[in-house]
Amino acid sequence: MYDWVRRLFYRASLGDHSYLYLFEPGPPDEFIALDCETTGLNPRVDDIIAIAAVKIRGNRILTSERFEAIIRPDRKPTSASIKVHQLREQDVESGAMMFRILPDLLRFIGGRPIIGYYIDFDIRMLDKYVLRQIQTKLPNPRLEVSEMYYACKYKGAPLNTLYDLRFSSILADLGIPSLGQHDALNDTLMTAMIYLQLRDMLDRGVRISRPRARPDHAPMG
């Protein structure tokens, strides 16, 4: 669906008109970097257990203007998810219910574009709660840092090129220190740094060097 058609549909579906500000443009040159930690990878049954967002204004990451919360989920964290984000059942029991923090989160985001690493997953997780509360989904434009990285490193690469879009690989290529992944705030801050650096590289037409493909690599589809 074209973005403008989607926005029109979402606006028409809005059940609470006090959230019309989501459809208004955010302040010029402001963006939101966002990350969620979840109980699993299925938006239909899994829940958000931590969320963080930080504002970007121009070329600055506004760490003093951030949103972060631990969320009490409907579904308990599994042993597999605990290994990833280190948030145990007792850690999230005292968290806020999502419906209570959602109005503040949406006000923080406003109409700004949302930046993330595989941001479609985070938005799908958020939309599960947003849809219940305001009868529509988030209309904000999205910016995907893995796509920006691909454009800087792999655009126009031969068919037998092996692509590596892992978060850790992006950090290493850009010389950004790892703050420790799978912590919502850390991931948000690193994503914001990735975005600013890649945006500058794309604006200047700077490419990231890549190893030459070996002839025995299988073609990539």
How is the topology of this model organized?
Layout (H helix, E strand, L loop, with lengths): L2 H11 L16 E9 L9 E10 L2 E11 L8 H7 L3 H4 L5 H12 L4 E3 L2 H16 L7 E3 H9 L13 H8 L9 H21 L17
Parallel strand pairs: 1-4, 4-5
Antiparallel strand pairs: 1-2, 2-3
Helix pairs in contact: 6-8
Can you tell me about this structure?
This protein has 221 residues and is α/β, with parallel strands linked by helices. The protein has a single domain (3-204), classed as Ribonuclease H-like superfamily/Ribonuclease H (Nucleotidyltransferase, domain 5). It is 40% helix and 16% strand. It is built from 8 helices and 5 strands. It has helices at 3-13, 79-85, 89-92, 98-109, 119-134, 145-153, 167-174, 184-204; strands at 30-38, 48-57, 60-70, 114-116, 142-144. A 5-stranded mixed beta sheet has the order 3-2-1-4-5, sandwiched between helices. The longest helix is centred in the last third of the chain and has 21 residues, at 184-204. Mean pLDDT is 89; it is low at 216-221.
